[in-house]
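Extended Data, record Methionine synthase reductase
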Amino acid sequence: MASEKSSRFVILYASQTGNAEWIAKNIHQEASERGFVNECYVMEEIDKFDLSKENVLILVTSNTGDGDPPDNATKFFRFLRKIKSNTFLSHLKFTILGLGDTNYTNFNNTAKRLEKRMIDLGAAPFYNKGLADDAMGLETTVDPWIANLWPELIKVCVQKGKDNNNTQVENIIESVKTLSINGKTESNETSLPSETPNGQSVDKKMGIASGTKIMLDLSELAKVEQFTALPRIPTVICKIIKSNEERIINSPTLPTLINTPTPIVNTRLDAVRCLTHPEALKRTIHLELEIKDYREKLEFIPGDSFGIIAPNNEKLCLGILKTLEINENEANQEISVESAEGTELPSHLRNAKSTSIIELLRYGVDLNSLPRKALLRLLAEYTTNEEEKKTLLFLCSKQGSVQFNLLREQVPTLLDLLITFPSSKPPLERLLDVLPPHQPRYYSIVNSPLVNRDLLHFAFNIVDYKTPVPYNVRKYGVCTPWLDNLSGYAKEINKRVPLTTDINIPIFMKPNSNGFAVPSDISRPIIMIGPGTGVAPFVGFIQHREQQIIAERKLNNIEKTFGEMWLFYGCRDIEKDYLYREELERFSENGFLKELLVVISRAPNAGLNGNPKYVQDLLRKRGQEIYELLDQKNAMIFVCGDAQGMAKGVNDALADILVEHGKIQKSDALKILTQWISDKRYLRDLWS
């Protein structure tokens, strides 16, 4: 009968950076402890589950790019699209948890699409979906969503022991989430530092980072009598097995534990050019990689992107080893990572065989991402100092949520946490249970293969900034400072410097699933919008079409129609950070670029008396012509760059153009833009 409870349920997850996988497996573990029979699979493992036979389903999914599904959801989406019957899932009840970011216009688009498709196929929600926002902190939504899941789940799924009025399991779990404090703190002064030196100090002699202590205001801790909404102590998953005590694993080559969607190749760093003036707000570097030995593996067109496998900072890795009291021999000894009984290794550690602790720190786990509460909970379990333990529990409780957010503002590394709580000495295998996977860094290709098939060009800003006042701690990225170091810290603006040393950069091609690439139809007009480094792929677009036009002219195809190319570009200072100025002005002068429209945001008159300040202002100024390109010539729109402000501003400007010149309502204009995104006529490559 339809009202009967299901004997089990299935969790399906799709994860790009590891967050959704981690959350899904935690739901799986807690559900098992609560007496629910359940299975947990990644969505692409469609041969391991059968939706036609399942009655209850929990979906957990993140997003990639501008609301696109993660790579490991592609097969599942394709499977759902092929189903024609609108009653195929009429037997199934489901709920969904989405992990998104409101910095992107299509917030949690994957979760919303999944929900709609499931309902279209006849499935019914048994619990309201959760849409977590990384901009505000995922845990703000995820934790209460999971807490409220259980009473809804019991309505549709059998809970062992619960039907016999046995609440022992639930009481044990809830007691872990609420802890009374025996002996209140006498004052808010603890052994933890109230002030921190600015910047990251380094042990010069050892070449080891010593980290930065975190600033904490513990005045509220003295008033707390008990901690509530504590995260569960993370499940034991990883076991480090010493494979061979005599064998040392510390090779300059990439370890086998790294998973990538396409094969990794070692390209050679061929040349470097600094694109910005020494006084520019940001340093932007252009690099060239030689790929002539990998032509078959590295086919590309402008708009494609590739991933770089960069190691975590070596001084940071050594600092963590020193703090955890792991000596050099132990760090380099051959080990394997295996799963504890009844558990499954996270996907990023499944190939961690014949590796070493130092390799795991360099390439296996993320040492820089914003800490989860689960990490603090774990650190508390291995803390011998009672004041430190109390502080860690406070930070991951409901009572310490304000201080937890202030801690995250300081962007602490794992090392920063360990030196702030020096009595916490967790085993490395327990840290593997909670640390996210180390991620490749993705870059857009700048050049066209029609110009040079043996080189891959790309550009990037050096990630080097200070955390907000009052912290003022200098922070660095993982990949860009590493590339800057390898290429010799180029300073002179627009001087190409050949590099003769054999420096290898491991890369892999990223499958282009969103269609952001130069159109094959050369008669179609293109509107390109890319301020800052967002202009990089469009240099390749214009190069590519230039070569196509030259080839057609050589064939005497004079009658052939070539689509107009418009570029909207923005920078701060025309003399300091106008990227690719020489190339863009040449394209314009030679007629390959119909319109080169540049706005300077720090110009004295920018934003005054009707003068444009940002690219969206330029769009509105040329609104009539833009509308004609879109309405009469079927132009495509490409946007590349910052998701937080620019992309939304551009979307609003395009909607305003459709309203003003198309004489339609704003709501209809937004629907048109949404449809264009779906039709891949309006394409965006965004980052936050």
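Summary. The chain has a mean pLDDT of 90.
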